[in-house]
Amino acid sequence: MTTDVKVPTLGESITEATLGQWLKKVGDSVAIDEPIASLETDKVAVEVPSPVAGVIGALVVAEGDTVEVGALIATIEEGGAAAAPKAQSDPAATAAQQAPAVPSQTNDSLSPSAKRAAGETGVDPSTVAGTGKDGRVTRVDIEGAAKAPAAPAPAPAAAPATSSSSGGRKEERVRMTRLRQTVAKRLKEAQNTAAMLTTFNDVDMTEVMAARAKYKDLFEKKHGVRLGFMGFFVKAAVQALRDIPAVNGSIEGDEIVYHDYADISVAVSAPNGLVVPVIRDAQNLSVAGIEKTIGDFGKRAKDGTLKMDEMKGGTFTISNGGVFGSLMSTPIINPPQSAVLGLHRIEERPVVRDGQVVVRPMMYLALSYDHRLIDGREAVTFLVALKNAIEDPTRLLIDL
Q1: Active site residue 371
Q2: Catalytically annotated residue among 42, 375, 392, 399
Q3: Pairing of strands 316-320, 264-266
Q4: Range of 372's domain?
Q5: DSSP letter assigned to residue 35
């Protein structure tokens, strides 16, 4: 009996995706719910599970093809034997010819991020002990194996197709991922639509750094997560948003929508670029709850297991370019939000305190905002409130 594998429902308003990678080939045995393909949407990579146990009969589309929700992408022969696979159809043959080889790939159930890590590091997944669900090898496992002291020399990855001139200069053309295409489109739309402006301030990190140094060990022991600076900034932002509600609002048509909750979008790194999951109802979370949520987002972003629903909505965004060494930037708002806070690296600088020049750990803050909704006075007031809370963290405890 032949079972069709179709593109599953991908979430509200998402009608198509890109076939990013086949995780199985024709003739491979699959168990029910075992991933057979990875789809790239404009937000995350989504694995397509097998609806039945059997053998892959045909791959109907090629990697890189755009597929709509409900479209046929493969067939599975229920109860078939791997030793006698069916012949591929013409589209399947094309898919097989176009599918790029994964260096040293022997584990067909690898996630896309794990396969990418294998290709980047040259680590053979079959030699790595998996710590993921059902013993699957994750990206973290492969990266850990690559850093192991006694690790054997990595096998050279297959060189990408390049074109070179007579002078030996090379070029490589890589198709933009759906995520990158969507990011580019949305950022340009934000510039074309919003009356965007950025205002700056700086903040003395002395007190927050002292509090973190004093309590980080106890915090990790009690809550099982490291105490970072984002917990303080999210908490301070929530208080400032409550006092300046326009920064937490949005424009819909000719109406302004004010939110009595703070769903904070936080930018985290993923294999295909930055993704922005949302901390729901951050106003109800403690610093520990915020840190746990962000830590979970970061781990699952690297593993490629974030869900699309976790990146929908959001009333305000915080982006921390400081982790990459950025001194100052003008972040772009994420529509329909009306503001985004940019954090930057902490740098010791001379400042004047009580008439004396002293050296303090300082950070530049940048608030980009939609001037159609937020006045300059409100933007500056928001940043000053945030600055005051970070420079005197006691304010976060007594709600000032």
Answers
A1: yes
A2: 375
A3: parallel
A4: 179-398
A5: E
Q: Among 145, 118, 149, 151, which residue's Cα sits nearest to residue 131? A: 145
What is the DSSP secondary structure assignment for residue 28, as one 8-state letter? -
- Domain total of the chain: 3
Residue 223 bears catalytic tag: no
- Which percentage of the chain shows pLDDT scores above 90? 40
Residue showing tokens 């008439």: 355
Rounded CA-CA distance 237/386 in Å is: 6
Q: What is the DSSP string of 62-93?
A: -TT-EEETT-EEEEEEET--TTSPPPPPHHHH
**Coil/strand/helix, residue 246:** helix
Cβ atoms of 178 and 18 within 8 Å: the answer is yes
CATH code for position 33:
2.40.50.100
Is the Cβ–Cβ distance between 347 and 316 less than 8 Å?
no
pLDDT tens profile 67-111:
888 889 899 988 655 434 444 444 544 444 444 444 444 445 666
Kindly name the residue from 254, 371, 392, 399 that is annotated as catalytic: 371
Tokens of 306: 């974030």
pLDDT digits over 241-278, tens only? 999 999 999 998 889 999 999 999 998 877 766 788 99
DSSP for 123-149, please give it: --GGGS---SGGGPPPHHHHHHHHH-T
Residue 7, SS3 per DSSP: coil
How many CB atoms neighbour CB 113 within 10 A? Answer: 22
- Report d(CA 298, CA 283) in Å as an integer: 21
Q: How is residue 289 written in tokens?
A: 């709850």
- Chain-centre distance of CA 91, in angstroms? 32
Q: Which amino acid is at 64?
A: G
Q: What is the rounded CA–CA span in Å between residue 389 and residue 232?
A: 9
In this structure, the dihedral spanned by the alpha carbons of residues 347, 353, 357 and 361, taken in order and rounded to 10 degrees, is -10
46 burial type by CB count under 10 A (0-12 exposed, 13-18 middle, 19+ buried): buried
Distance CA(49)–CA(33), nearest Å, equals 5
Task: Tell me if residue 203 falls in helix, strand or coil.
Answer: strand
Calculate ∠ Cα 7-9-11, nearest 5°: 135
Cα radius of gyration (the chain): 25
Do 87 and 151 belong together in one domain?
A: no
| CATH number, residue 126 | 4.10.320
